[in-house]
Amino acid sequence: MKKTILLTLLSGAMAFQVSGQTYKGHVESMSDQIEQKVVSYRRHFHQNPELSNREFKTSEFVAEKLKSLGLEVKTGVAKTGVVAILKGGKPGPVVALRADMDGLPVPERAPLEFASKVKSEYNGQEVPVMHACGHDTHMAMLLGAAEILTSMRKDIKGTIKFIFQPAEEGAPRGEEGGAKLMIKEGVLENPKVDAIFGIHINAQTEVGKIKYRPEGTMAAVDILNITVKGRQSHGAYPWLGVDPIVVSSQIIMGLQTIVSRQIDLTNQGAVVTIGSLHSGVRSNIIPEEAKMEGTIRTLDANMQNSIHERITRTATNIAESAGATAVVDIHREYPITFNDKELTEKTVPSLVKAAGKDNVSLTKAVTGAEDFSFFQEKVPGVFVFVGGMPKGKNVLETGAHHTPDFFIDESGMKTGVKAYCFMALDYMDAKK
Ligand SMILES: [Zn+2]
Ligand SMILES: [Zn+2]
Prior knowledge:
The chain is of the alpha+beta class. It is 36% helix and 28% strand. Mean pLDDT is 95; it is low at 1-13.
């Protein structure tokens, strides 16, 4: 706590000036000035949502706005991504700010003037499309921050990379995409990024508030597949076969004891869910095989590895005890969204600058996932949540993310614009 206060004081004392005022004052007055513009960007994106890896028009709009600021802009990164570089007037580190761009196959139900009526194709099916996760607000806020930061160009001590990332929600079947593909295409190189910051709007956090968490913030996602092989027999003579359905049931019950009995839950939470189980064709045949599929969510790398080992041990040994076999396959889909501890500590004063001391608080970990985690595997990064819930509303009466009633109060975006600016500026100021 002491350290936090000291950092706030120091960064206040060292802060550079922009046209006679501290950069805090400049960011504040400009974020007021451009608030309506940011809202209009958001409405444009909201009315014209595009699915993952199909953000063609979105990408054009973003690139055009960034070019009009006089930034060096690269398009077609990871298919539809846009990257802009702002070289400050003074030497210093390279900071990346990230916003994601994709909508979801969800019909919009909110009675908004600018509600989406867009339809598109997803995995061969016609679907309605909506910005049902708020990525429209992320792009609008980052365009706003880019305008503010560009206006301070000659005083900036370092380089800022604006990363507009496609396909956060996952690429369509058989395609690559998202943060992983951007990294593969070198987004963190030339110039090499020293730190990255990301924001997610949150429909269940009141406008004006920011929530954050050091270390494990959103979960890793691993996909679990187990194939149980028994021996087929007539349903009337089970002793002649090995029943993979009964063995699978035992395995599923065994898996329940991993999180509840074997893992130190005071450290972090974890989830093991079996979401599908398939076997057999009719009542009087004991089949040869059963297949199940599940998801594993973890917030700590050691726990993640330990849970993987325990799942394999539990499934194979239970199968063996029955004379069956179980083949376990675990595929790592998304890493943990892991906020670097030291960087998070240093970022808190920036969040306080953006929202005020009483509006910044710790949040619980989330068992959902974010592909921002791929960036954090490569460079220290911080990912925070900015409020989009109307004041005085209750979390239970607001539409959740990924649902037709998802709703964001646009007045929350100004806090996000400022947070983007201060996270970048304070980092560069401290490193000069
Ligand atoms: Zn989402
Ligand atoms: Zn999202």
